[in-house]
Amino acid sequence: MRYQLIGVNHTSAPLDVRERLAIAESHLPEACRLLTAHPGVEEGLILSTCNRVEMITHTINGSADLRGFVREHFHLSPGELDSHIYEFRDKDAVRHVFRVASSLDSMVVGEAQILGQVKEAYATARAAGAVRTQLDHLLTRAFAVAKRVRTETAVGSSSVSVASVAVELAKKIFGTLQGKNVFIVGAGKMSELAARHLMAHGCSAIFVSNRTFERAAGLARKFGGEAIKFDDLYNTCDRADIVITSTGSPVAIFRREHGEQFLARRKNRPMFFIDIAVPRDVSPEMAKLDGIFAYDIDDLQQAVSSHVADRRHEAELAEAIIASEVERFEARLHTLDVVPTIVSLQDHFETIRQAEIDRVRGRLGPMTPEQEMAVEALTRGIINKVMHTPVTTLKTAAREAEATTLIEVVRRLFNLPDKK
Questions:
Q1: CATH topology for 3-158?
Q2: N or C: which end of the chain has fewer CB within 10 A?
Q3: For the structural domain made of 162-307, what CATH number should be given?
């Protein structure tokens, strides 16, 4: 194993730190290519969501200065943010990837969105040429593990999610959602999911705005709503009681002055902002206005803390599944390591066998088909017996720490060509 992972998440870093490290979706392919160009990195994948930014790599010699890459890419000074960054290697890195894909490391344990986000990050890195053999093994296995966790435990059976928590908060603010208007700013999947929950609980009209108007129109059609041009956002946003925003903008798009304008036009009727963007779309100054209720992704984390106990038992079952899957994955990798050597050894002895048969064929004279078969059986039997011990030893040692050393000894002992 030469897996190495570095990152920050909602438990290691506050939102203002995660904002600094967030990578826009459009920049991910180039970021993945830069990661794989970093010294010591062979393959790389970057996962950037509202709750985490992680770089998953397969290294050339078992170690790479990923902290150096983070400093360079995000223009950090030495030591800056180190207290918020975690780093895992080999089995620990594999375990972390499995836990993330299975939603055990999520803000809301069991939420379904993270698996889709990991799959999108995998597809992006693969298309960029940053994921090939080793990370492909890891991620495809992570998807299978996540499916097993979902199938064999009830960790994802509850409807608790960021979207459902947003509904709960909205109910606390307005009392009832009947007849309330919703405005989606940014046509992302999380925004759509939150809006769908709100509409299911009685909200009436829905408006959608996005920098690409066609995407806004497409999402608005799903809800029978109205698409708003992004240039008209500030002139129309006050029509909504609830605003769900996730644009990917590097700066806040809703600031205090906007909140003051909205409240004036609404005659101080309250507005609820659900900001699930990282970096944040809503300035913290907005929440200081009477009548503006703004919740960011970390506020939602606090709101879901009461649900953690409900899933603790199922999460323990899921952790046991992941522990066993990590061991299986490691064993499989070690087995894969010895396969090329076993194949080379078989080819080596087969070449010797054929050469010896050809060398003595002239002295044996013409042979009947039965004699040819007897020679074949005799020589193959000898080769199989000679190979039995080294092959069995390689397979047995595949799971042990000395497997790499044994592989090298066998290759040198029989003068096998270098592994490709």
A1: Beta Polymerase; domain 2 (3.30.460)
A2: C
A3: 3.40.50.720
Tell me the β-bridge partners of 243.
183, 273
Task: Give one DSSP letter per residue of 218-235, joined into a string.
Answer: HHHHHHT-EEEEGGGHHH
Q: Is the pTM of this model over 0.85?
A: no
Give residue limits of the domains in the chain.
3-158, 162-307, 338-413
Across 276-356, the runs of DSSP E, i.e. the strands, are: 292-295
Matching residue, tokens 């803390």? 305
Residue 246 in 3-state DSSP?
Answer: coil
The Cα–Cα gap between 199 and 178 comes to: 9
Model confidence pLDDT, tens digit, residues 280-321: 999 999 989 999 999 998 887 777 665 555 667 788 899 999
Residue among 32, 50, 203, 237 flagged as catalytic: 50
Beta bridge partners of 184: 208, 244
What angle in degrees, to the nearest 10, is found between the helix axes of 312-364 and 133-152? 130
How far, CA to CA in Å, does 301 sit from each of 166, 204, 237? 11, 27, 26
CA angle, 162 as apex, 160 and 166 as ends, to 5°? Answer: 100
According to DSSP, the β-strands at 226-229 and 206-210 are parallel
What's the pLDDT tens digit per position in 347-406? 899 999 999 988 888 888 888 889 889 999 999 999 999 989 888 888 777 766 666 778
Cα first-last separation, the chain: 17
In the annotation, is 50 catalytic?
yes
